[in-house]
Every structure is written in C-alpha cells, then in structure tokens.
Amino acid sequence: MRCRSTLEQHVKQPEATQRRPVFQVIKDHLLAQIQAGQWKEGEAVPSEQALAAQFGVARMTVNRAVRELTAEQVLFRIQGSGTYVAPQKVQSTLVAIRNIAEEVAARGHRHRSQVHLLAREAATELIAAQFGLKRKQSLFHSVIVHFENDLPIQVEDRWVNPALAPAYLKQDFSVTTPNAYLVAVAPLQGVNYSIEALPPPPPVAQMLSMAPHESCLVLKRRTWSKTLVASVVTMWHPGSRYQFAGSF
Predict the structure, then answer these.
(1) Is the Cα dihedral 32, 37, 43, 46 positive or negative?
(2) How many Å from the N-terminal Cα to the C-terminal Cα in the chain?
C-alpha cells in the first residue's frame, strides 16, 4: 500500500466561515456610527424598536447590544427618555481651582448652567461650624447644575460668606459662574478638600439624569480669603461621566 507523502498528510481543509452573532453585528454597527461622527456625544441613538426593525431581529437581540455598550460606557440611558452617546469621562484637575466653564471650553465643548436656588438662608449647624459661625447665622446659598454639550455633569451646592461676597445674590449665574465671581471679589488664600464616592440624594440624581444605583464622585471644598472662610461647596458628579486627575 502506498504511503501518502508528507505534503499530502499536511494539506489543510478549508475552515468553515464563522458567523458573528447578530447582537455583535448590531453592536459593531453602533460603534462604527459613533466613531464616524454620525451620533455625537450626548446625542440620542435610534430606539431599540427602530434598530430591531432595521436589522429584522427581535428587540431582545438589540437590547443585548445596547446593554453591553452601556456597560462599556459607550452609551448611557435616561429612563423614560432614551439612549445617548456617552461622553469620554470628563477630567478635573485638583492642582488648581478652575472655573468649570473654562474646563468645558478647553475641551472644545459648550458650557451652560441652570440655577435651581439662589437665596439668603440660615445656616445649618454643620455649615455654620465650617464657617466658624453660630448656628442659623445668615449665609448665601446657591444650587446650580452645570452642563457640557447639554449633558449635566455637576451639581454645585455652595454656601457663601456675605461679608466677602456681598453682591453674590445679584449675579446672573446662567452667564457667569460662582467660581469666576468669587475669584474676583475674594482672592483665594487657602483651601482644603475631600473626595468620596456616595449615592446621590434623589433631587441630585434627578438633576444629573442618573441611572438608578449609580454613584457620584463628590468633591467637598472649603476656601479662605482675607483670613475668613469664603465658601463651602459640595460638587456632585456622575461617576460614569467624570473623573479627577492631576499631577504635582
């Protein structure tokens, strides 16, 4: 019996073409469209129902593709609204206190703000202690939501010393920012801060359009000017859209 040659023994049979799962095809399509600029950061992508019709598949197949892209932070969902292209995580430096409007502009994006509260209020015991004041002493209080390309990225809850910023309540914080005003009237002398991950209170979660059970990165900061505490601020940032970075 004739033996097969070495060449004959090692001839490879054609490999079967492996087909990608349909959900992966849809996922790749969405990624390609985002990378091509078809949908920009903060813009809505087609609904699951529309994508299911486009690809001729069950909605649950589309749902898996969207869920995976959401887990990978390529997309994010707002309940009752839709699915949107997630921005790259915003970076904020801790080396210098910067105006958030300037940070957003430096990234080539558009900043706007929405004032939810601007009033004179009696300080709580905790807030008063941070200013070195007696409980219920009058302070200025503001709550402002900052947006980047119409996507909410920060809730700024700030208490201000009227002795250092007497015209605080007269400012239009839809045009300027508390940081810009305070730097002008109460030059920075000192600062301390802390950062922690916390679940947001319901009003904060609503203002930031956050998904259920998502945590915030919370920056708490106290500043001094002319030997007095000028401002005590708590800034809430969606953990999926924000990160702090810096170097020394």
Answers:
(1) negative
(2) 79
Query: Which residues, at least 6 apart from 60, have a Cβ–Cβ distance to it below 8 Å?
Result: none
Q: What is the pLDDT of residues 85-140, one digit of tens each?
A: 876 655 454 445 678 888 888 888 999 999 999 999 999 998 999 998 888 899 99
Residue 161: closest CA among 98, 228, 234, 99: 228
The region of weakest confidence among 71-75, 156-160, 229-233 is: 71-75
Tokens 């920075």 appear where? 188
E strand or H helix at 145: strand 138-148
SS3 content of the chain, % helix, strand, coil (to 5): 30, 30, 40
- pLDDT > 50? residue 8: no
CATH of domain 90-245: 3.40.1410.10
Architecture field, domain 22-85? Orthogonal Bundle (1.10)
Rg of the chain taking only CA atoms, in angstroms: 26
Q: How far is CA 190 from CA 69, 136, 244, in A?
A: 43, 25, 20
Residue 57 DSSP one-character state: -
3-state secondary structure of 78: strand
Single-letter code of the amino acid located at 11 = V
Domain with CATH 1.10.10.10 in the chain: 22-85
